[in-house]
Amino acid sequence: MTRHPTGARSQVVRRAGRLLSLLAFLACPAPASASLFSPEVEDKLATFIALFVIFVVPVVLIALFWMVHVLPEKIAHKRNHPQFEGIRTLCLLSLLFGGLLWPLAWLWAYSKPVLYKMAYGTDTVPHGPEPAYGEPDALPDTLHDRLARVEARVPPTELDALRADLAALEAKLAGREVA
Fold this sequence. Notes:
Layout: H1 6-27, H2 39-78, H3 84-96, H4 102-110, H5 116-120, H6 143-153, H7 156-178
Helix pairs in contact: 2-3, 2-4, 3-4
């Protein structure tokens, strides 16, 4: 029989000790629990998660669904798409049909109108308040401002004729009110 050196013997003893301790743990098991928490805490946590899933998750999903379906409308508005109102309508219809029309609205928002430029001379339409009387710079503040602008455009002879017609109409109306 061969003798083991002292280092090899201590290694064998360590292995045997580990095996015996493992067998001792397996022979005397402790009560097992499936959770780190007590049953009361588990119930409270389950109630909180259930309420969160029932009330918060649907609201977040509906808001996300709405934001995604309004995205083509925002893109069309940002790009001054001339068919913006049609894209807006398609987005609303897509909400009603569960999102089936959304890809069409998205493609339409990113597309360039084909014959719009030929018909109207531009590919885009500015969205916002309409300028009054074809003046893009300023909207008239008062009737006096509007009258001053009209007087500046109309030749004086036509303006005098308009003033005479206006005076005749006022006299006619004044005669009806008296009678």
